[in-house]
Amino acid sequence: MTGSWLQAGVRGRRPGRAVVRRLERLADLGARPEDTHDERLRQGTLIFSSLLITAISTIWVTTYLAYGDPVSAAIPGFYQVITVIGLAVLARTRRFATFRTTQLLAFLVLPALLQVSLGGFVASSAMILWAVFTPLAALALLGIQRSVSWLVAFFVELAALALVDSRLAQSPSALPPGFVVTFLVLNIAGVMVSAYVMLSYFVEQRERAHRDLRAERERSERLLLNVLPEPIAERLKTEPGVIAEHYEAVSVLFADIVGFTARSAVMAAEDVVKLLDQVFSAFDRIADAEGVEKIKTIGDAYMLVGGLPMPRPDHLAAVARTALTLRDEVARIAALPGQDWLAVRIGIDSGPVVAGVIGRRKFIYDLWGDTVNTASRMESHGPPGEIQVTGRVAAALGPEFAVRPRGTIEVKGKGPMQTFLLDRP
């Protein structure tokens, strides 16, 4: 769970990748399976910052020991010890709250103790600057409301140190003035760099989480658009009520693979799905190219409509062109080795429908009405390889299409009907 700022610096180098992997493991040190991504982010931020300060503390330990001040050296050394022990306990217990509280207290108390031991603000090079980490870390880890108490504690501590500073300055440490100034610069720079790295890590991970969230939202949008027309999907996101519309004039098409049920009984399951995917994916591309709306697939049947959800005056012509192209595409696939049995039967009717969204957990956009039922009957009663249409469709088609009478047939639920077969002129 490291930021891309770190990955960019080590890209292309094998040792760098090892560091990234170690830090990723470190970020999950105290994580539990039920922890959210945000909680893991906060944990990783504190662990990384604690190790960074532990490494910096080595400078103080060695310097104070070199100048004969073991008491002052023991304070940053004590922080190193409690951090290592805290990480070991965290890895075993997964109780991040305990580690977090311990670190915040150490950030607050130990710089003040070190400043006292060195003789005040000047002699310690303003060591209290490191306590600034306490409200900053609390803000990143706990949020605004819960971090206020840590901010107040920091100011109370700062005021207390100011009150006793004149007394502490009477017995300052034996560090040379040059070292005092140097450490002041190092303390300011160290606090700034450490805080910047900590917040950069946190901000980068936040941005990464937001990018992941946006990507997930985009995937969800694409999935939603796979089952709903785009205007309907947009309405569904903003209108919690029932979505239903009446359309006076649309054209409905049903297409069915002839004999597929019997053929699928002797085909391998993988081959069945592969063939349907090949055919229906081609149907999807054709429907998109013509600007008509796929409604659903039912087994080996395919349903689409022209003229909704956005009405268009040429809906019938668009659906008729789609039907002819669908038939040509199936003929192309049937010419492939082993697919000579493949044929499609298509039916079209035109008229009014009711359309809407049903379901709450699994949405479906569907159509209802006599036009839908009649189009389905045109398909189921049609000859293989043909496009059967009703009389009203044949009468409304323009000169770019050819229709020939099939005659009067008995249609289930409709009785005798005069139907026509669609073709190119």
UniProtKB/TrEMBL annotation:
TM helices/strands, residue ranges: 46-67, 73-91, 103-121, 127-144, 151-169, 181-203
Q: List the record's Gene Ontology CC terms alphabetically.
A: membrane
UniProt-listed CDD domains: CHD
- For this UniProt record, give its keywords in alphabetical order, as a comma-separated list: Lyase, Membrane, Nucleotide-binding, Transmembrane, Transmembrane helix
Q: Where is it localised? A: Membrane
SMART domains reported in the protein's UniProt record = CYCc (SM00044)
Q: Which Pfam families match?
A: Guanylate_cyc
Q: Which residues form the Guanylate cyclase domain?
A: 251-379
Q: Give the superkingdom in one word.
A: Bacteria
Give GO terms: molecular function aspect only. Answer: adenylate cyclase activity; nucleotide binding
Biological process terms from the Gene Ontology for this record are: cyclic nucleotide biosynthetic process; intracellular signal transduction
Principal location class: membrane
The record's family statement is: Belongs to the adenylyl cyclase class-4/guanylyl cyclase family.
Query: What is the protein's given name?
Result: Guanylate cyclase
Organism equals Kribbella antiqua
Its ancestry begins with: Bacteria, Bacillati, Actinomycetota, Actinomycetes, Propionibacteriales
